[in-house]
């Protein structure tokens, strides 16, 4: 069983490394090539890269686990994300592709903000870089937790007495492969591997629920079993408070501020091709979300009907893969899980590295650094951020969904209002931009520290992105209106 699965995983790892080598030969001779793929991504690659880097292990671990444990009511998170992603493609994508080029051909989000508001350039670059590295360390750790859980659940004891747990062995293997192709091939490697990983993920997510249903009496039998567990298990509203609904649906607000997603918009070949990428990306996302929902719901029915035990709901995908399929197919399904994890980790490492390189190293240490030196320093920062994330992920009791929700809220509140208004509101000022960054991130951190995301004023918790997003929006508008309008210095 383990040998067949390992063969499939080994082939998957070899494919990822081969893509990294190809990208190294094609696009790593300059900063623009290493960090943005030369702004020459095909719409399909950009679309699936944005989707795969977005969904991460959350799609195959976190969301199915939440549905397995609580029922269909958890689907509101997916609905909120789908709507948010669609608005992001319509409002942010074409404007960001155009304006990042017209404002000094910016290669990173902090650089774009600095060019857009030159009077606060230094403060924006430094503040945004700090926020990116801080929250991406947590976000990357969430992906590594998924890799650790995969190896702990599927390959327990296989690696013998190495001095490390199976969980930590999984983390180091996952991080090692990601580091190899990301450090070598840069943005193009990350985007091309994301495309392949996105294809693998959607096939696995469609395949698994169908196999589960056909193995145990079909849809009717599964529905009857779930209703026997809890008559409200398949209800969209049972036990759902207004605060709970709001906290779920507002996950969609986070899309506007996720650097590892919106950087794909900057790399599409041209503005007219954004619409094509949007249609491909949203179709992929819709199918992938339906598949993830199916895994969680049908997985619960399968476990109950067969008298199985599942200690961690977030491992339902892994349990089904190990139980229902031939070892070689199991390896493919586990590769899909690794694809979800690795696609996000690589994107996050590269964005963190680009911020540290462009907004710290070249800004303060080596303003005249050569292109080759800059690329090599970027590779070094990729490794450093990965090590920090490995340290954060070392606790095997960490929850993927919890870590992702915290980081998602941090980016959504800090950058979401800032990106939206900087692209659409000419009256916005540099002082307003800085205030939005600080207030958004600060409110999210405070909210988490006070535990108000779990319980608030004697009632249910309020997802931290809500107060953070509202406070940041208010800060930007208020400070901007109180100051002098910024001068438009774009080349448009």
From TrEMBL:
Belongs to the sodium:solute symporter (SSF) (TC 2.A.21) family. It is a multi-pass membrane protein. It comes from the Bacteria. Pfam families: SSF. The chain crosses the membrane at residues 6-24, 75-93, 122-147, 167-188, 195-213, 233-256, 277-297, 317-341, 376-394, 400-423, 430-450, 462-482. Catalyzes the sodium-dependent uptake of extracellular L-proline. Keywords: Amino-acid transport, Cell inner membrane, Cell membrane, Ion transport, Membrane, Sodium, Sodium transport, Symport, Transmembrane, Transmembrane helix, Transport. It catalyses: L-proline(in) + Na(+)(in) = L-proline(out) + Na(+)(out). This is Sodium/proline symporter. It is found in: Cell inner membrane; Cell membrane.
């Amino acid at each position: 069983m383990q040998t067949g699965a390992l063969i499939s995983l080994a082939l998957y790892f070899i494919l990822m490394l081969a893509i990294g080598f190809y990208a190294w030969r094609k696009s790593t001779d300059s900063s623009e090539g290493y960090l943005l793929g030369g702004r020459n991504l095909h719409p399909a690659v950009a679309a699936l890269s944005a989707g795969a880097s977005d969904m991460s292990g959350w799609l195959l671990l976190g969301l199915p686990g939440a549905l397995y444990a609580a029922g269909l009511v958890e689907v509101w998170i997916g609905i909120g994300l789908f709507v948010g992603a669609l608005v992001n493609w319509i409002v942010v994508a074409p404007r960001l592709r155009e304006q990042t080029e017209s404002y000094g051909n910016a290669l990173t989000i902090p650089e774009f903000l600095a060019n857009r508001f030159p009077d606060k350039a230094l403060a924006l670059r430094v503040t945004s870089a700090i926020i990116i590295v801080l929250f991406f360390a947590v976000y990357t750790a969430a992906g590594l937790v998924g890799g650790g859980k995969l190896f702990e659940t599927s390959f327990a004891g296989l690696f013998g007495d190495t001095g490390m747990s199976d969980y930590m062995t999984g983390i180091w293997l996952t991080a090692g492969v990601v580091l190899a192709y990301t450090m070598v091939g840069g943005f193009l490697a990350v985007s091309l591997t994301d495309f392949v990983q996105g294809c693998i993920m959607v096939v696995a997510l469609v395949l698994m629920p169908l196999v589960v249903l056909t193995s145990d009496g079909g849809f009717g039998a599964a529905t009857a079993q779930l209703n026997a567990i809890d008559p409200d298990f398949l209800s969209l509203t049972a036990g759902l408070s207004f605060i709970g609904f709001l906290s779920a649906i507002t996950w969609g607000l986070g899309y506007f501020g996720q650097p590892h997603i919106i950087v794909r918009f900057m790399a599409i070949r041209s503005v007219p091709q954004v619409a094509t990428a949007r249609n491909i990306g949203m179709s992929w996302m819709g199918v992938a979300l339906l598949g993830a929902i199916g895994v969680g719901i049908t997985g619960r029915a399968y476990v109950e009907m067969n008298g199985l035990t599942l200690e961690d709901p977030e491992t339902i995908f892994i349990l089904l893969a190990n139980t229902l399929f031939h070892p070689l197919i199991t390896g493919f399904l586990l590769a899909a899980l690794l694809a979800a994890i690795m696609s996000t980790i690589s994107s996050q490492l590269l964005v963190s590295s680009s911020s540290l390189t462009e907004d710290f190293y070249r800004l303060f240490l080596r303003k005249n650094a050569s292109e080759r030196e800059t690329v090599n320093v970027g590779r070094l920062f990729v490794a450093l951020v990965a090590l920090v994330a490995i340290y954060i992920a070392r606790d095997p009791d960490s929850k993927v969904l919890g870590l992702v929700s915290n980081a998602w809220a941090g980016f959504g509140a800090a950058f979401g209002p800032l990106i939206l208004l900087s692209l659409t509101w000419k009256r916005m000022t540099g002082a307003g931009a800085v205030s939005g960054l600080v207030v958004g991130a600060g409110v999210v951190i405070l909210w988490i520290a006070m535990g108000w995301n779990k319980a608030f004023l004697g009632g249910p918790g309020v997802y931290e992105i809500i107060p953070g997003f509202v406070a940041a929006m208010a800060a930007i508008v208020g400070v901007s209106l109180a100051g002098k309008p910024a001068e438009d210095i774009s080349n448009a």
